[in-house]
Structures are given as C-alpha cells and as structure tokens.
Amino acid sequence: MIEQVMLKRVIYITWLSVALCFCWPVSANTSRNQIIVFRFFQIFTIISSCLGSLPMFHSIYLHQDDIVIVAKSISIMVVLIQLIVQTTICAIKHDTLQHIIEEMITYMKEAKQYEKKIIQKYVSKCYILYGSAIIISYLTTTIFILGPIFLPISLPFYTEFPLSLNNTAVYIIIYFHQCFFAYQCSATVCLSIFGALLLWFVVIKFECLIMKIQNISNKDMMVICIKKQLQIRRYAKEIANCFRHIIFYTIIATSFNMILAGIILIMNPLLVIKIQFMITCFTALIEVYLYAWPAQYMDDMSKNVSISAYNLKWYEQTSEMQQNILIMLIFQKPISLSINFLMPKLSLRSYCAYLSNAFSIFTALRVILKDNSI
C-alpha cells in the first residue's frame, strides 16, 4: 500500500508541475464540456505565447546596440517557442498520451507485490533529482517575478511596450501576464519530468518482464512473456513517438540558450546578469539530462529482455521452447529515442557529447572575443 501511495504521489506531483502548460491530457472519463475547456486553454496558451513574443521583438529593435538586452529577449523568445511547440505536439498527441497514462495508472492499481517492490526501487532512485528539479524551477521563477519589489525594475521581463505603463490598470495586466508566462516557462521545463516519468515506467515494465522470464517453467508462461514483450515494446514506441520531437526541440533550444549565455558570461557583465545566465546554462543542462538518464535505462532494459531469455539454458529445453526463445530473441533491437538524420540516439553517452560540445563552443567563443579585443 505504501508503494502504491508513493507512485500515486509521484504521478500527482508530476501532473501538478506541468498543469500550467496544459500538456497532461485529461482523463478518458472527462465530460465533453471539460474537454472543450481544456482545448480552449491549450489554444489560449499558444496565442498568449505568440503575443508575448511581440514585446521581445520590439525590445530587440530598440536596443540593437545592447547585447545583454538582445540576449535576454532572444532567450525568452526561445522558451516561448518551446512552450508553443510542446503544447502543440501534446495537443496533437492528446489521445495517445491519454491512453499511455491510463495504462500506467491501471498497471499501478493491479501491480503484484514483486512489481510494487520494483516500482518503489525506481521511485527511491529518482525522487530526489526530479523533486529537486521541480522545486528549483518554481522557486527560481518565484524569485524572478518578485524582482520588481526588490530591484529598480518595473517588470520581471525587460520589455518595451508601445504604450505607457503609468496607467495602473495596464501595468497590473502586463505584470500578471508576465508572472503567468514565467510560471508557464517553469511548467515547460518540468515537461521533461513528465516525459521522464513515462520512460521510467517503461523501464519498470521491462524489469518486471525480465523477472517473469527468469521464472519461466513451461511453454504457456513463455508465450505469455512473448506477448508481454511485444506489448511493452509497442507501448515504449508510442511514448518515443510522442516525445522525440519535443526532445529534439528541447536540445536545440537549450543549446542555443547556452551559446547566448556563454557569450554574455565571457563579456564579463554585472554579477546579477552573470547569475541569471548561469542559471540559464544550469537549467539547459539539467533539462536534457532528465530525458537522457531514463532513455539510457530504457535502451539497456529493452536489450536485457532478450539476454534474459537467452540465459534460460535453452540447450536443455524442448524444441518447442527453443523456438519460443528464438521468437523472443528476434525482438532484441533496443528501443531508443532518436530522429533519423537529425537527432542521434539519446543516451548518457550522447549527453556527455552534448556537454563536451557545449564547453568546446564556450572555449571557441572566448578565443574569438579575446582576439577581437586585442
């Protein structure tokens, strides 16, 4: 019961963390009116993000000679586009995501004792990192939107508007819109936790299947395991299809923001600005890692299923059992997150390459700017 409550809490906290970007699908039992309202908020989020980018363009146009303001505006616009892309993809994939989550909840309710132990093992492994990511994301945003109270700035985002902010009503509307958008940015970052939750669930299902395979004693159990393997692989591919383009844009967006942050940090600006862009770099690195860690486990576990079948001392089995083992070995290609010609297989190895490339870019920028200053 403790294990079930723990996983229920994990699912609830994850849902809560992404609620503001409206990417978590509604329940299958939701009424038609509630679905219409949910769709309205998704469209509102996309339109609001598009409108939010207009002041950024205006700021870039007015302050073309100020690299810090330009970098800040572009960085915010990148996050705005990320919010639009993620919300759009989740709206298109709504029914698939709904099916994926319903299956996860059903599995949790019907889990056997050994499955609950495996679930608890992964909850204990991951909750500190992912819980800390949620807390830091929303805490940073809260500090950010309280900036006008403690600093000589009028709004959380430095933007230029073609209208006067001296009007109290106009100022309040713009301020609360920026606050809402800031929290939506946090929800956008937390979408990586939503994706990671589903990937970890696939890992759990693969490990439970491996335990079943290790205890196979007859042909009927083998047939059940083969069907289970195909079902889990199909489920994993559905998750991969939902998130591969989101992850692809996340990598592009975070890489671009890290380059901007690197340029600003090398130029030796004020300490406050340095801290802001260092937080941007840290967020970018964490956001990609939150996907890469479970993606690596899913890749390994999908291969381990076939390995566990091969380790059954097949040479001592009947010819019919050997044929079934061969069928299971056919499906040994690992399930991975990738896009042909665009994104290599996401793993801890590719994440290390991502880190290496980021530091190489920083070094190159430092050399270029140093040469220009001589």
TrEMBL record:
It is found in: Cell membrane. Pfam families: 7tm_6. The chain crosses the membrane at residues 12-28, 40-61, 67-85, 127-150, 170-203, 246-267, 273-293. It is a multi-pass membrane protein. Signal peptide: none annotated. GO terms for cellular component: plasma membrane. GO terms for molecular function: odorant binding; olfactory receptor activity. It comes from the Eukaryota. Its main location: membrane. Keywords: Cell membrane, Membrane, Olfaction, Receptor, Sensory transduction, Transducer, Transmembrane, Transmembrane helix. GO terms for biological process: signal transduction. The keyword Disulfide bond does not apply. Belongs to the insect chemoreceptor superfamily. Heteromeric odorant receptor channel (TC 1.A.69) family. PANTHER family: ODORANT RECEPTOR, ODORANT RECEPTOR 19A-RELATED. This is Odorant receptor. It comes from Apis mellifera.
